[in-house]
Every structure is written in structure tokens, then in C-alpha cells.
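Subject: two folds for Thursday's group meeting

Dear M.,

Sorry for the delay on this. The cluster queue was jammed most of the week, so I only got both jobs back this morning. I'm pasting them in the order they finished. Each block is the input sequence followed by the predicted C-alpha cells. Could you check whether the formatting survives your parser before we put anything on slides? The first protein is the one we discussed after the seminar.
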Amino acid sequence: MHRPLSVEESNSVILRREALAQGYDDRAIRQMVSSGLWRKIRHGAYAITEVWDPLSPQGRHRLLARAVLRTAHQSSVLSHVSAAIELGAPSWNVDLGWVHVTRGDGQTSRRQSGVVRHSGVLSTEDVLVLDGVPVTCGWRAALEVTTVSAVEPALVLVNGLLNAGVTTKSELERAAPLFEHWPNSLTTRLVLGLSDERVASAGESRLLYLCWKAGLPLPVPQLLIEDLGQSFRAYVDFAWPDLGVFMEFDGREKYHRYRRDGESLEQFLLREKRREELICQLRGWICIRITWADLDRPAQTGARIGNLLASRGRPRS
């Protein structure tokens, strides 16, 4: 999950009305922006530059969402993509410049000035308050994103929520009938069918989608490989155990997540190479390594994987 925003970060959003109350005028506000001390993040809202600039796109979206909520109707809660980001999901190919809120005062839905306002009925069980920020709960946020995103980016968000533990597959399946009459319900069904809490990153979700889109047999995520005689234990990102093939996604997040304290990137890569070699030796399997660049060539990458699986004794489905 994303780390909690610090007090300094949460307080780095400054509304124009607050700046005026503190003695600034519009000329002084413009000078703060032109000098680089503040960043204008939306109409009437600014962030302290030294806080804003180092943040990830997801971190910036969370500050932007806080600015929106501070001027929104009191019934508004973060929902859809914005709730998923606040709950800790990774994202890919969604426009984080738009903040999604749901308000329960009967106003019609509209999209304006960087805010997508959804109308809807929210019960108290549908809403969580995290660090003072109201958001739709895990299962609802997961289903909401399937109604506003294409299958692949929605799968990244939904798998992220499942992997973070803020919802479960059974919760999503129980609640899915409530969304049958929402727009894009076909996307909802496809995403739920592909979703898996074992998929741990945006790149892995995209790789799973690539296999499905290419008509390949779906691999098993996070398969445990053990050899008690050699005291060896390791997980692989994906595997086709019956074919003796495993697949690893080489993404930057993996380097951050699995590097040991004090371990250089070169040492980590060497350790990964030894792990891969040992799995191949112990099981007689072969490994496919996929990068972000491969994901951007889905037809070629799908054909490459399919040809390898076929060479191991099973034609493409």
C-alpha cells in the first residue's frame, strides 16, 4: 500500500481563501508561485513545492484529492479511481489529473474543472474514513473503477486492492450484482474473472491481461518452488507447472521491494540470476523474462510466450 501522507504533506495544500485569511493578497500568491515556492495544483489551490515535487503521481493525486474535498459539498467522498489510490492500489494508464468523488445530495453526475462528480446512494457501511479522508470502501472502490476504466487499467487497480487486503474476491462477487445496471458492466465481469489477490504489481497485472488477450492458458500467480533437501524456497511470479515453464516480470518495483538492506542493484540482479538458475536445475523448467517494453508489444510478446508453451508439449488454446 502507499505510505500514509505525513502531517507536513497533508498540510501542504493551501487554498486561496486560506492564504487571503493569513494576510496574502493575489499578487503575493502569484509571487509565491513564480518564485517556485508554491505549485498551483488546481484553481484556487496550491501546494508547497518542496513537498509536491518529490511525490509520485499517486502521491500528487492524493494531495489534489484533499484540495478538492476541502471545497466540495459536505456529502462528498472520494470514490472510483481516487478511492482506489487512497486505499493503496497501484495505477497504470489512468488520468490522475481528475479526482473522482461521489456525493449523495441528489445532484446529477458531471465532469468539470478536474473533478468527476458521481451521484449515488452511499450507506455508512460503504464509506471509510482514513486519516480524516472519507473514501468508498474497498469492495465498492474496486467495482467502481471497472465502470470508468478499460479492462487492463481496471485490472491493475482491482488486483492492487485485493493484494493490499482491503477487499476480497468473495466480497466483490457478492456485491457485483449491485452494479449490473451500471455502465460498462461487461468490463466489471471481465475484470472480476481475471482478478487475483496473488498478483502483486501493476506490471504483473498487465502481464496476466496480456496472456488472457493473447488466448494463452492463464498461468498460476506466485507459485511456491521448494526443495527441502537443499533448503530452497522461492516464489515465481507466474508458472505453468504442467509445462515446466515459469515467467518473471522485471519491473522496477521488484528491485525496491525485494532488495535486501545494503544490497546494491548489481548484487540483487546476481542473486536473482542464481535463484532462476537453481529453479531450472531443480525442476528442469525454463524461464521467460518479461519487461515493461515487452508489455508495450503485446502481439509479439504473446506470440513469443505462446510459441514457447507450444514447444513444451501443449498448443496454444
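Second protein, same layout:
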Amino acid sequence: MKEGKVELYINETLEAKGAMFFSLIDPVDYKSEEAAIKTARDSVKGGADLVLIGGSVGVQGDLLDNVARRIKEEVDVPVTLFPGNIATITEHADAIYFMSILNARNPYWITQAQMLAAPMIKKKRIEPLPVGYIIVHPGGTVGWVGDANIVPREKPKIAAALAMAGEFLGNRFIITDTGSNPQAQGSGPIPIEMIHAVKSAITVPYIVGGGIRNTKDLRTAYASGADIVQIGAVFEGSNGASAFKISSEFSKVAKEEGAKKLKKS
């Protein structure tokens, strides 16, 4: 499969800036569609490089269509789907994380859901981004829904081996995600040692998600090896009220850490 416009945009931006920051909007977690749309718009004004739309439960149908269409009308960066299942598809998106959960126990999440969704994605001309998805403790909702053999936080070599296998299988992006469960025991961002181990094991862009709630955590993630960090819960916590401020602060860190990466290379 040839590199599409969104994948090219990501690769060229990483080459030019060294790091990227994605905002993740789960419209189910906002008080209204307008609040979700405003958050996406303000996050891009603050410097987010791409908007993700999705969630583990209930992001589909009219809600997804309306939110994706409005966000796409109001931002100038790619709008990409972060699907919870085969219903998280809309023609109003530019691209979709075409994900395989690499540590799923149920083959549905490895290849079957992808097989069911592929014809519709092609028909609607949504660009598929081949993503290998690794769920790390505590896993949150996605860990439960995705029936994952969740990677222990203290086992970075397992995550690295999964990431390596994902790249060997053809995934052009790898993501490690702790899920959105800040109250769980032992929760927090992906551990430093795990980020470093995964980055050292692969050559494709590495995305880190889950548990990052402040600029310190964000800076640590980039310094440890993340190419891209996606942020959702922080925006949801304020219900979007501070999206521009949060995004501006996070974007500043991404630029600074990206510049450091480019200088080292």
C-alpha cells in the first residue's frame, strides 16, 4: 500500500519538527457535541498537529458523523479516526488508525474486525494508517473491551518485542497506550524504561498515549523516545474549557523536545 496524504504529512512533519502532538476527542465524554467540537478547534489553534476522534464505547452513527464533519470544517490539520470497533467509521474523516491489537487474546481484535471494516474504509476513501496497538497496564476501558493480555508496566522487553513484531508484520506506526483509567492502581503514563525499549526496537514512528496529564510527563515521554504523543483525558477533564491553553503549553513542549531530537540526529 502506497503512502497516503496523511501518512506523508506525519512523516514530513516529524522530519521537519522532530516530534508531534495529537489531540484525541472522545465525543461521548463531553457534555455536548459543541463542547467536543470546540475542544478540537481550540486544540488545533493551540498547536495540535492532528485531531483524533474516537473512543472504546459508543462513538458511532450520527454522533460520529456530525462531530467529524464539523471538526473537519473548522480545522486545517488532518482528522483521523481512533476506532473502538467497526462502527467507528465516517466518510468525514481524512484517515483512520487501521489498528491491530498486538496483545489481544481474541483474534477478532487482531484481524477479524479489520477484515469486516476494510471494504467500507476503501469505499469511503478513508486513508488507512497501519497501526500496531499495544495495551499496557492498567488498560482502562480499551483493555477490557479489547480483551487484551495487558503488558505489565515493569516488563518493557515484552512491549518492545510486541512492537518489533508489529513492525515486522507491516505496521507503519506503533502505539503503546495505558487506556483512560486514572483512578486505577499503578496507573500513570507509559514508564520511561518501556518507552525507551520500544523506541530502540523499531524504526517506524512511535506514538505514546494514556496517562499524560502535564507538561512534565509530556517532556519525559519525548525525551524517552516518543515521536508522537496523543492527549485526550486532560482536555476531557476541563470539558474543553481550557483546550487552547493546554494545547499551547503541550505544543510548546513538543516543539522544544522535537528540536532537541533533530539536533541529536
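Two things I noticed about the second structure. The first strand starts at residue 20 and ends at 25. The radius of gyration is 17 Å.

Cheers,
T.
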